[in-house]
């Protein structure tokens, strides 16, 4: 037989063998029991409970796919897939993936009856309810619930699923503390918890999760310090901690995470911190380390080694206080880095030429660069707006300078912008076009009237749009479009006249839906500041407007423009969803801006219609009018209404205060011509009167002495600045009066006078009040919030310098309001300050300030601690001396702390009607605030969180050693020797008892190492209250 015959026989044998094998397989398959009845019932229950699923399940579903559409729709995230594993006798369901199907109903516990189930993926649906604890009964490897409406707490039983490797619970409504039991999941690789409502701290047991590769907890209210055990997660590839209440410092152990490719740690609270040691993180591809909280900025120079990271594609170090030049090594990044954001720092030196020639997206705006100025503020994709240190050098382009001065002579008094859209007319006003695409690092100005600056790249979607266009035709025209940004969006009103303006910001949510799809689960949260003042924290458009497609106008009145520029800043602080309906849909969004003067200005003019009057008549009218005007001016000059003193008064009035202006006649009428029976106190700069305006509004009028016209000008300027500070826990300034030698301030009248009177009055007739514990807690929290605003949130960063019980006033509802900013110093956000004028009150002054004139906001923190002790004890810090060796109540508190008997401080009038835990918390906070070392005192925002129970409080054990005691007594002796003995008075009250002589204003000139420039840079305000 030839070769071809052998080949034929071999092929026949193979064919016969194949048929036999196939026949055996089919016979075996037809005899199998594919799916147990228990699992059929479980799948049917799941189908019923998850509406819209519509499964038709039977025992053969795993073999022939009956009822299961085992497919993923190409090009989408929609997946409907059930996988089974079959043996010779039975099939079992091992994986269920139902993604993007808009399933509703509650999460079925019936999943637990699928005893071999390893994977549940229900991403992007509308499933509600809690996570069943029964899930702990199945050998899950992957549990993913991203983008649903799950609520309640994570069951601690989940920590018993020893096989679990992936737990993805992002974008839900889960709440409560994180269960410690999750620390037992030794095989866990991905733990994604972002955008829920978790609080408390990250349990220490999570330090055992040594196989973690991905940990995310953005947008939760978890608090406490960043845990040191993060250094245990040596396999970590991605770490996201944004938009939480967690605090610095960044743990040293982070330097051990050599496998990290994505690191995002932003918007922390706490104390200032240095740049973390990242030398070993050479695999980094994305690095975000930025903060907006002024008290915990990263204050350092940018390390040179960052420029040697050869894989770094995105570097965001914006909103810190980084100083020094851009490292030379950063030129290496130009080859690999696509996005470099260094905005809002204190970087100096010359902008490197390689940056100006770069084609990357780079943002250097708001820094302190010097050297040869560049030609424009936008060089390709490099944003340089307000990046130079100068304000006066006219050789530097206007848009590079700090104050963005007007580049033209003409000024405007209104502004209308259709953000993201075309030019259109609305209610008779023409809204200007804002239809440019925008970008990652953009500054654009239009006709010298307005501009915007956009910063950031959308996480997970580099190509996302920076304009949004609605398809809903029922939305009003101006709301059909919007501009958005992933991080920071600033709009500027340019060349505005100096004065007071009303600002309306128009919002509507047009990127989410209001239907029964997962797109309705999006949540957009951002912060809004105007002129540097935070006006909305955690602003949520849908919450304010009442839903998707609903309009909302945020209106802020009396916004002061002192120069020529109005700044509106929208900032994303890491909160809200980032993956709904898909990645790249988050961050600040705005539809329109309306800016108009606060007060209408009437213009009077004649209109002469050609042909209606003769040329001679026109000439006669013109000449006659001219003569009339000259005569009127001459009479006014002769009467003294023009020139000299009255002219200066007019100039003072014309400084466009953000406050109301009162005439002297109004004030005299309100106070019955300053009748002595209306006098309610005597302040450091003059008497205080109660008055009633013609509309029945009660007021407090402080009468100040006028020393010089120049002093008046400074007074008016400072009043304009202080009047911008509006907060529920600050005394409200209604306005002022400047006529002749009269300088008058008009404030809201507070019925319950001062906290000192309420706590320390001898009897009820002297205004002592019975304050229960909830009221004391409310007062203490109010003071803390007011100080946090002054230090961190206001357009001016102010150190009060004289916080004490007499400078805390109480309204009719016993809400605390801080008064007397006259002893404040404007804080220019410098790191340290040496004061040449000590101003404060013995017993409340921080040691470093009293002895060395070293002034930071931590001086106020110290004073707050003393006041908090007074609130707890009902005793004056300066008057209470249980034993001769103690000078202050604070000394006695230290002794009681050492003895473990701090509750002895509690006011006896409270009897036992107080929660011991809350009282101890307040006492411990007070001791923490009065730490002799200013660097160990918390920020006031941290104090607020502590009082609210969001941050755990561990008071330090402060030992009263000899050095500390000597320092305290020296400060006391020095101030006592140089002081002027006076009777302290509350800002709106009658004099206190003469025994309280140490509770008054003090001033002491000291020699200082500060040079002239430093002294000018940090000048004191006048006594305004």
Automatic annotation (TrEMBL):
It comes from Cucumis melo var. makuwa (Oriental melon). This is non-specific serine/threonine protein kinase. Residues 997-1025 are annotated as: Disordered. SMART domains: S_TKc (SM00220). It catalyses: L-seryl-[protein] + ATP = O-phospho-L-seryl-[protein] + ADP + H(+); L-threonyl-[protein] + ATP = O-phospho-L-threonyl-[protein] + ADP + H(+). The lineage of its organism: Eukaryota, Viridiplantae, Streptophyta, Embryophyta, Tracheophyta. The chain crosses the membrane at residues 604-636. PROSITE patterns: PROTEIN_KINASE_DOM (PS50011), PROTEIN_KINASE_ST (PS00108). Its main location: membrane. It is found in: Membrane. One of its GO terms (molecular function) is ATP binding. Gene3D superfamilies: Galactose-binding lectin, Phosphorylase Kinase, domain 1, Ribonuclease Inhibitor, Transferase(Phosphotransferase) domain 1. It is an enzyme of class 2 (transferase).
């Amino acid at each position: 037989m030839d070769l071809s015959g052998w080949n034929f026989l071999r092929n026949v044998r193979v064919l016969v063998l194949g048929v036999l094998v196939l026949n055996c397989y089919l016979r075996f398959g037809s005899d199998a029991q594919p799916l147990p009845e228990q699992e059929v019932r479980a799948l049917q229950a799941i189908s019923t409970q998850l509406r819209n699923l519509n499964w038709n399940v039977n025992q053969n579903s795993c073999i022939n796919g009956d009822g299961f559409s085992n497919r993923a729709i190409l090009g989408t995230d929609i997946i409907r897939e059930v996988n089974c594993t079959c043996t010779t006798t039975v099939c079992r369901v091992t994986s269920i993936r139902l993604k993007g199907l808009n399933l509703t109903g509650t999460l079925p516990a019936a999943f637990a009856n699928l005893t071999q189930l390893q994977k549940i993926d229900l991403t992007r649906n509308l499933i509600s309810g809690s996570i069943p604890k029964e899930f702990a009964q199945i050998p899950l490897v992957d549990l993913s619930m991203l983008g649903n409406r799950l609520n309640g707490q994570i069951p601690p039983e989940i920590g018993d699923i020893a096989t679990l490797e992936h737990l993805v619970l992002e974008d839900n409504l889960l709440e409560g503390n994180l269960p410690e039991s999750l620390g037992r999941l030794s095989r866990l690789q991905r733990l994604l918890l972002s955008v829920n409502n978790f609080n408390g701290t990250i349990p220490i047991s999570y330090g055992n999760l040594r196989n973690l590769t991905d940990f995310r907890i953005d947008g939760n209210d978890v608090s406490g310090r960043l845990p040191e055990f993060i250094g245990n997660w040596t396999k970590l590839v991605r770490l996201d901690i944004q938009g939480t209440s967690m605090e610095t410092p960044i743990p040293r152990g982070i330097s051990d995470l050599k496998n990290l490719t994505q690191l995002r740690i932003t918007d922390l609270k706490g104390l200032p911190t240095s740049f973390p040691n990242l030398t070993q993180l050479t695999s980094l591809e994305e690095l975000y380390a930025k903060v907006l909280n002024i008290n915990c900025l990263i204050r350092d120079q940018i390390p040179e080694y960052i420029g040697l990271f050869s894989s770094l594609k995105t570097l965001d170090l914006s909103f810190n206080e980084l100083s020094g030049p851009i490292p030379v090594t950063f030129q290496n990044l130009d080859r690999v880095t696509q996005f470099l954001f260094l905005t809002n720092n204190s970087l100096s030196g010359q902008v490197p030429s390689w940056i100006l020639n770069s084609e990357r997206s780079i943002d250097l705006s708001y820094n302190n660069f010097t050297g040869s100025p560049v030609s424009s503020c936008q060089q390709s994709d490099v944003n340089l707006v307000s990046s130079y240190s100068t304000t006066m050098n006219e050789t530097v382009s206007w848009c590079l300078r700090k104050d963005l001065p007007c580049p033209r002579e003409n000024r405007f008094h209104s502004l209308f912008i259709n953000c993201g859209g075309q030019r259109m007319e609305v209610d008779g006003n023409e809204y200007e076009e804002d239809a440019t695409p925008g970008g990652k690092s953009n500054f654009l100005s239009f006709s010298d009237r307005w501009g915007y600056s956009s910063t950031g790249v959308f996480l997970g979607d580099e190509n996302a749009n920076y304009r949004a266009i609605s398809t809903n035709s029922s939305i009003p025209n101006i709301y059909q479009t919007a501009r958005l940004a992933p991080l920071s969006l600033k709009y500027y009103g340019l060349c505005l006249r100096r004065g007071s303006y009303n600002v309306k910001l128009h919002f509507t949510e047009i990127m989410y839906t209001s239907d029964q799809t997962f797109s309705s689960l999006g949540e957009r949260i951002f912060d809004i500041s105007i002129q540097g003042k935070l006006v909305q924290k955690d602003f949520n458009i849908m919450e304010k407007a009442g839903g998707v497609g609903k309009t909302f106008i945020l209106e802020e009145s009396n916004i002061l423009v002192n120069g020529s520029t109005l700044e509106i800043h929208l900032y994303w602080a890491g909160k809200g969803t980032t993956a709904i309906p898909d990645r790249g849909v988050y961050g600040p969004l705005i539809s329109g801006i309306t800016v108009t003067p606060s007060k209408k200005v009437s213009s009077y003019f004649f209109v002469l219609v050609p042909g209606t009057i003769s040329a001679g008549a026109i000439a006669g009218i013109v000449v006659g009018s001219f003569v009339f005007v000259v005569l009127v001016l001459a009479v006014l000059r002769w009467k003294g209404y023009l020139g000299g003193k009255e002219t200066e008064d007019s100039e003072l009035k014309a400084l466009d205060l953000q406050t109301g202006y009162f005439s002297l006649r109004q004030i005299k009428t309100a106070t019955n011509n300053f009748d002595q029976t209306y006098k309610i106190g005597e302040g450091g700069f003059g008497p205080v009167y109660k008055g009633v305006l013609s509309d029945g509004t009660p007021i407090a009028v402080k009468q100040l002495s006028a020393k010089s016209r120049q002093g008046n000008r400074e007074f008016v300027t400072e009043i304009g600045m202080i009047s911008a500070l509006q907060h529920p826990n600050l005394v409200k300034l209604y306005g002022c009066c400047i006529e002749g030698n009269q300088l008058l301030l008009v404030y809201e009248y507070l019925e319950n006078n001062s906290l000192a009177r309420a706590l320390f009055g001898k009897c009820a007739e002297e205004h002592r009040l019975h304050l229960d514990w909830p009221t004391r807690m409310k007062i203490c929290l109010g003071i803390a919030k007011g100080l946090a605003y002054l230090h961190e949130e206001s357009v001016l960063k102010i150190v009060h310098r004289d916080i004490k019980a007499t400078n805390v006033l109480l309204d009719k509802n016993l809400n605390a309001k801080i008064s007397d900013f006259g002893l404040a110093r404007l804080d220019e956000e410098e790191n340290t300050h040496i004061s040449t004028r000590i101003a404060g009150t013995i017993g409340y002054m921080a040691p470093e300030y009293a002895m060395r004139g070293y002034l930071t906001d931590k001086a106020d923190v110290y004073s707050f601690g003393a006041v908090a002790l007074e609130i707890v004890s009902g005793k004056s810090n300066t008057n209470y001396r249980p034993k001769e060796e103690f000078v202050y109540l604070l000394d006695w508190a230290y002794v009681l702390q050492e003895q473990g008997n701090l509750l002895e401080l509690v006011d006896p009038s409270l009897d036992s009607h107080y929660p011991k835990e809350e009282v101890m918390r307040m006492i411990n906070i007070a001791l923490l605030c009065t730490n002799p070392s200013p660097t160990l005192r918390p920020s006031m925002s941290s104090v607020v969180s502590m009082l609210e129970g969001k941050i755990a409080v561990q008071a330090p054990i402060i030992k009263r050693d000899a050095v500390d005691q000597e320092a305290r007594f020296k400060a006391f002796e020095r101030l006592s020797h140089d002081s002027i003995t006076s009777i302290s008075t509350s800002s709106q009250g009658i004099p206190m008892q003469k025994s309280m002589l140490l509770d008054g204003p003090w001033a002491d000139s000291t020699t200082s190492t500060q040079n002239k420039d430093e002294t000018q840079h940090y000048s004191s305000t006048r006594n305004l209250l």
